[in-house]
Amino acid sequence: MKLSPHLQTTVPLAAGLICVALAGIIWMPLVRDGEAAPLPAAQSVPSDAPDAMAVLAERSQDLVERPLFHITRRPPVVATVAEPAPVAITLSLTGIVNDENDRIALMQLSNRPDLLRRRVGEKIGNWEIEEITDTSVVVISSDGERQVISLSSGNP
Q1: Phi, psi angles (nearest 5°) of residue 9
Q2: What is the pLDDT of residues 113-149, one digit of tens each?
Q3: Which of 6, 89, 100, 151 has the fewest CB atoms nearer than 10 Å to its CB?
Q4: How far apart are CA 131 and CA 138, in angstroms?
């Protein structure tokens, strides 16, 4: 059945008006004795309570910076920098040079490529050379720990 052009515009317009009227009836406040229903009593707010607008603005800052339904929304990344583990520097004995009246220890620190020549009483890194024998060197660390480094048994 084909409607006339006049009815084709009138029927949707009438349906829309009926929907608007029903919505007004549903949402219209209840009326008692010709007067509108009383509004709910305002709750008392303590004087030291925070301002509602300030709280709302503070809590919505995250939504402004990171929209809720955006494809790139991810939890905030907290950057943590891992501190590198301290590297233990070791001391190794490469050789001992015997002179007529002096001994020189040829030693190397694990963090340096060069060979160091030290006599008794001299320092190398955090260690001080206490004694040099034909096959070993006795060193004292800065915290007072004694260590014997030997040529024959390998180096620690």
Answers
A1: -95, -25
A2: 899 999 999 998 888 999 999 889 999 988 889 999 9
A3: 100
A4: 5
